[in-house]
Design brief:
The chain starts with 6 loop residues before the first helix and ends in a 15-residue tail after the last helix. It has one domain. The relative contact order is 0.12. It is built from 10 helices and no strands. Pfam families: G3P_acyltransf. Its EC number is 2.3.1.275.
Length: about 210
């Protein structure tokens, strides 16, 4: 896929995507408001799920929203400025996800990429991202398991793009993000198979019973 942009311009935008993803939202939140690095607690990840387990629902929402924006804003910007640079658009999205997983500002130890990956999806196509998020919430309600719900819903979103989008680079790109999400959740997948994965308690009942 031939690009009309210089290598420097392309690398600059990819770097912007990576640096945006590298903003260590969870680490900053935990250090500023709780004087502790969240990576020393719970699962050791800096994402919204571990934030929520240790600091509550409100904290999880704040971190999740910012992590979504880390993926949303860069890909939305590059789509608006270079709408026909399909490979670059996808690479900026992938770079944002990699930045969240391996943030240069936090010792390359980040989160499991769910929120930022959904942000990339929303930045690519708002309606596909919205529908995938609704499927995510439906799965969470039905299964009470965040990891399984995230993996399942994102897989469906990526497959939809692969089947319906004329530009194969997007289908392949979002499938790569999906596979990377599975890799980042490999411990969760093992716990799901073992029946020991953490589940949400909705207050009215205990889903582990």
């Amino acid at each position: 896929m031939q690009s009309n942009l210089s290598i420097f311009t392309q690398l600059l935008w990819i770097a912007i995507g990576y640096l945006s993803g590298s903003i260590p939202t969870g680490v900053l939140y935990s250090k500023i408001f709780h004087k502790v690095d969240v990576r020393q607690l719970g699962s050791g990840n800096s994402g919204a799920t571990n934030i929520g387990r240790n600091f509550g629902f409100k904290a999880a929402v704040i971190v999740s929203v910012i992590d979504i924006l880390k993926g949303w804003i860069p890909i939305l910007m590059v789509r608006q400025i270079f709408p026909n640079e399909h490979l670059l658009i996808m690479l900026v999205g992938i770079a944002s996800v990699l930045g969240h997983a391996y943030p240069i500002f936090a010792g390359f130890k980040g989160g499991k990429i769910v929120s930022t990956s959904f942000g990339v999806l929303v930045g690519f196509n708002f309606w596909i991202g919205l529908m995938t998020a609704l499927v995510l919430f439906a799965f969470i309600y039905l299964t009470s398991t965040i990891s399984l719900s995230a993996l399942s819903s994102y897989t469906l979103g990526a497959l939809y793009i692969l089947v319906t989008n004329d530009q194969i680079v997007y289908g392949i790109g979002f499938l790569l993000i999906t596979l990377f999400m599975y890799y980042r959740h490999r411990a969760n997948i093992q716990r799901i198979l073992n029946g020991t994965e953490s589940r949400i308690s909705w207050g009215l009942h205990n889903p582990n019973k």
